[in-house]
Design a protein that fits this description.
Rossmann fold, alpha/beta, nine-stranded mixed beta sheet, binds magnesium ion, GMP Synthetase, Chain A, domain 3, binds adenosine-5'-triphosphate, three-stranded mixed beta sheet
């Protein structure tokens, strides 16, 4: 039979995909009990009860421990870190608060940003959301561009106002294919300027994350305002698990912008998932392509940051027209070259996301006590 230390050593192979450290280092292994018949009980402490990566831990722990000699079965159960433990973990990671409340049920948070304005962040966000939803994913879009919000228009929403549910949480508005959307644009008069800065802004974003009933989402896409301002800083603080997708244009001379994006990402301490090159040539309705803005900028930036180039999205009439009409081109014209490229980008994102492994329960012999945590509803 392996010793407790050997089991602990084996559990170092189990990585928390969000915090990117092993569960031993994160002090998430609550208890290890070995039974004479070769069965080992392991209790893992999660940050939240509805932790979406629970099945990942379940499989990972069972696999790691089963590999040890003399082990005949593994029971994995779960409990939840206390508030003090969570705070200690947050301090240990040198980060702000861990994901809590509504966002506990969000599997992937992806911020779409760029080093400069007008490169198509909002169009890319709306269409990635559409492509992910078309693929059967549960998707939310948070329009974090409080000054220049555009998601209500791009996703065809806005005449309605979000309602509050019985738990006093704001309900997102629902766009085509069930995309949940929240934007400051739902609360202000049409085209009214929002002039918040500093603490007001911080509070508003915090509310969008904590007081909105996002529910269970595979992806929450966040449309960032241009540049590296307060909004990005606040979001990075509130969402340390978020990943970043950088949108850029193809000009090879965009080196300065590339450097700014890299600086922004390192300042925000967020992982960069990849680069999307937009306005990557112009494709005429007849299919002819012109390299209006040169070539290679996206590839160059991706290489510099050592991340994948997720898509090269051409300029097309359909994309522009459909985003003005409130229907993402991915829905209205899936054969459009821009729509195709964005759907390709969405598949790339799916490939990069933490894999949801099927729940594999190790056979539990009759003698072994039923692990208490198993009765919790599975995420
Ligand atoms: N691939 C494309 N093909 C055609 N038009 C596009 C494409 N990408 C963006 N556009 C158009 O360019 C304009 C700017 O795009 P968008 O608003 O998405 O950029 P942004 O980066 O979010 O801008 P901001 O920095 O102001 O938030 C929009 O009118 C949009 O319809
Ligand atoms: Mg925008």
């Amino acid at each position: 039979m392996p010793t407790r230390d050997q089991v602990m050593q084996a559990l170092r192979a189990v990585i928390d995909p969000e915090l990117r450290r092993d569960i031993v280092e994160l002090e998430m292994v609550r208890s290890i009990e070995t039974h004479a018949n070769g069965v080992i009980d392991v209790t893992v402490s999660l940050t939240t009860p509805g932790c979406p990566i629970r099945s990942h831990f379940q499989t990972g722990v069972a696999q790691a421990v089963r590999e040890l000699e003399g082990v005949s079965g593994v029971n994995v159960s779960f409990d939840v870190l206390s508030d003090d433990e969570k705070a200690a973990l947050g301090r240990k990671l040198g980060r702000g608060a861990l994901p809590e409340g509504a966002l506990a049920q969000v599997r992937n948070v992806i911020c779409v940003g760029s080093g400069k304005g007008g490169v198509g962040k909002s169009s890319v966000t709306a269409n990635l959301a559409a492509a992910l939803a078309a693929d059967g994913k549960q998707v939310g879009v948070l329009d974090a561009d409080v000054w220049g919000y555009s998601q209500p228009r791009m996703l065809g929403l806005g005449s309605e106002r979000p309602r509050v549910n019985a738990n006093r949480k704001l309900l997102p508005l629902i766009a085509a294919e069930g995309i949940s959307v929240m934007s400051i644009g739902f609360f202000v008069e049409q085209d009214a300027a929002v002039v918040w800065r500093g603490p007001m802004l911080h509070k508003a974003l915090q509310q969008f994350l904590e007081d909105v009933e996002w529910g269970e989402l595979d992806y929450l896409l966040i449309d960032l305002p241009p540049g590296t301002g307060d909004v990005s800083m606040t979001l990075a603080q509130l969402l340390p698990q978020a990943k970043f997708v950088i949108v850029t244009t193809p000009q090879p001379v965009a080196q300065k912008v590339a450097r700014r994006s890299a600086e922004m990402a390192s300042k925000l301490k967020l992982e960069i998932a990849g680069v999307i090159e937009n306005m990557s040539g112009f494709v005429t309705p007849a299919g002819e392509r012109f390299q209006l803005f040169g070539e290679g900028g996206g590839q160059l930036l991706a290489e510099e940051l050592e991340v994948p180039l997720l898509a090269k999205v051409p300029l097309t009439m359909a994309l522009r027209e459909q985003s003005d009409a409130g229907i993402p081109v991915v829905f209205s014209d899936p054969d459009d070259p821009a729509a195709q490229a964005l759907a390709h980008g969405a598949r790339g994102l799916i490939a990069l996301s933490p894999i949801e492994l099927p729940v594999m329960q190790a056979p539990a012999p009759a003698a072994a006590p039923k692990p208490a945590g198993m009765s919790l509803p599975m995420a």
